[in-house]
Design a protein that fits this description.
Number of helices: 4
Shape: globular
Strand order of the largest sheet: 1-2-3-4
Strand content: 5-15%
Order of helices and strands: HEEEEHHH
Radius of gyration: 17 Å
Oligomer: single chain
Helix content: 25-40%
Number of strands: 4
């Protein structure tokens, strides 16, 4: 870690969390624990131009997977599809098994797979907000590195500015 990055992290309002383990972004380019769900964008295994928005709801473990324009995943046949398994695997790499299990309200034993502990059913949920956040993250990747505030985010208070 270089000194410039450490200085930026100290001024940042949001804590920067490094992934628990490195992960490949080609299969799951976006994963988050937000809005009471494990959710993210998963690449199609058969069509490079297609992505799926997948989610698992905390507590109920209800799951959904659909294309970014809300067409249901063909692999959802009463149980989680491959995209949901990939999403869970990427989340464990990103956040760690303990944090993901706590967030989803599930107990995972030693040597047990996270997905085998979930007991939800398919429940359609809109994926537009997740896909929109993914596109926003992509836009930030195109910005040059800087420690200066980003104009569209100027309303976030600086660390320590509000008492």
């Amino acid at each position: 870690m270089n000194a410039d990055r450490a200085a930026w992290e100290q001024r940042s309002v949001a804590r920067v969390v490094s992934p628990v383990q490195p992960r490949k972004l080609a299969s799951v380019p976006f994963v988050e624990l937000a809005d009471g769900r494990l959710q993210g964008v998963v690449s199609s295994g058969s069509d490079i131009a297609r992505v799926y928005v997948s989610s698992i709801t905390a507590g109920t473990h209800a799951f959904n997977c659909s294309t970014n324009n809300n067409r249901p995943c063909g692999g959802l046949r009463g149980s989680p599809c491959k995209h949901l398994h990939d999403l869970a695997g990427a989340a464990v790499l990103q956040y760690g098994l303990d944090q993901v299990a706590r967030y989803l309200h599930v107990e995972v034993g030693d040597g047990t797979d996270l997905m085998s502990c979930l007991n939800g059913r398919h429940e359609p949920t809109p994926g537009a907000m997740v896909f929109s956040r993914f596109l926003r993250h992509l836009a930030y990747l195109e910005l040059p590195d800087t420690t200066e505030p980003i104009a569209e985010m100027h309303w976030f208070p600086a660390m320590g500015a509000i008492r």
